[in-house]
Amino acid sequence: MELYSHEYFMNEALKQAKAAFEDGEIPVGAVIVCRNKVIARAYNQTETLNDVTAHAEMLAITSAANYLGAKYLVDCKLYVTLEPCVMCGGALYWSQISEVHYAASDPRRGYLQSNTGILHPKTKVYSGTMGSESEALLLQFFQNLRK
Amino acid sequence: MELYSHEYFMNEALKQAKAAFEDGEIPVGAVIVCRNKVIARAYNQTETLNDVTAHAEMLAITSAANYLGAKYLVDCKLYVTLEPCVMCGGALYWSQISEVHYAASDPRRGYLQSNTGILHPKTKVYSGTMGSESEALLLQFFQNLRK
């Protein structure tokens, strides 16, 4: 079995972010990987679904649990193009996910703003993979919005 | 028009918590009120929906936005039987809800554990209404679980 790299999976998340961009949504995408396989793909749909809770990570968590038939994502990894917000960090805590990989940081609303442990103590966090690609997409989105 | 009290609305939330209890779910219930009218009712369904994100507050936020046809709940009040967790606190931030009323405190996983502002600065918070009724229901649930 071919083992995919973190870059491969983050690029899959970035494809989701690009789909959000095409739909006029803030371009954030996520995939959840279990045993080297993408089991959930989602992008931000807050406008389309008229729902502030419809962040890419939330939709991916629900979708992955549905695929697995299990509430807890203990053997899963999240790849997301932007640092999760407090809501998504709280949801990831409940999911007990093994790893969180995010591309770009979000100094304004990222969960790291809060200085207490939001994620589960068992969850390992990695950041920066394809961060500049994700940032460029977000920047382009907000520049278009201001035009 | 008759104006209902906070106790009236919290009791409506408590009815939802009791429905959760009957379904074998951790008994937490919520209602969202807009202009003196309940526009959304929900209870915790994490077991039934096999989804860690299916807290009463999350389902109520989605339902209220659907009812209003508007993403932001600026003129709405949440009544919930337990202090919201970090995930729900983060969702309430995005919703820009006017008021949050919770019955019982959750010193273990309540959003107040985090010492940075999780809720929106415009959101007013009230606590304690029917707190002992909510606590008694939760206690009974966990005592039954241990039997």
From TrEMBL, chains A, B:
Q: Which amino acid positions bind Zn(2+), per UniProt?
A: H55, C85, C88
Record's cofactor remark:
Binds 1 zinc ion per subunit.
Q: Which PROSITE patterns match?
A: CYT_DCMP_DEAMINASES_1 (PS00903), CYT_DCMP_DEAMINASES_2 (PS51747)
Q: Does the keyword Cell membrane apply?
A: no
Q: Which Gene3D superfamilies match?
A: Cytidine Deaminase, domain 2 (3.40.140.10)
Q: Which SUPFAM superfamilies match?
A: Cytidine deaminase-like
Catalytic class of the enzyme: hydrolase
Q: Which domain of life is it from?
A: Bacteria
- Name the Pfam families on file: dCMP_cyt_deam_1
- Show where the CMP/dCMP-type deaminase domain sits: 4-114
List the catalytic residues.
Answer: E57
Please indicate if the UniProt record lists ATP-binding as a keyword.
no
Q: Which cofactor does it need?
A: Zn(2+)
Task: Could you list this entry's UniProt keywords, alphabetically sorted.
Answer: Hydrolase, Metal-binding, tRNA processing, Zinc
Q: What is its EC number?
A: 3.5.4.33
Please give the catalytic activity noted in the UniProt record: adenosine(34) in tRNA + H2O + H(+) = inosine(34) in tRNA + NH4(+)
Q: What does this protein do?
A: Catalyzes the deamination of adenosine to inosine at the wobble position 34 of tRNA(Arg2).
Q: How does it assemble?
A: Homodimer.
Q: Indicate the family of this protein.
A: Belongs to the cytidine and deoxycytidylate deaminase family. ADAT2 subfamily.
Q: What is this protein called?
A: tRNA-specific adenosine deaminase
Organism in which the protein naturally occurs = Algoriphagus halophytocola
The protein's gene is named tadA
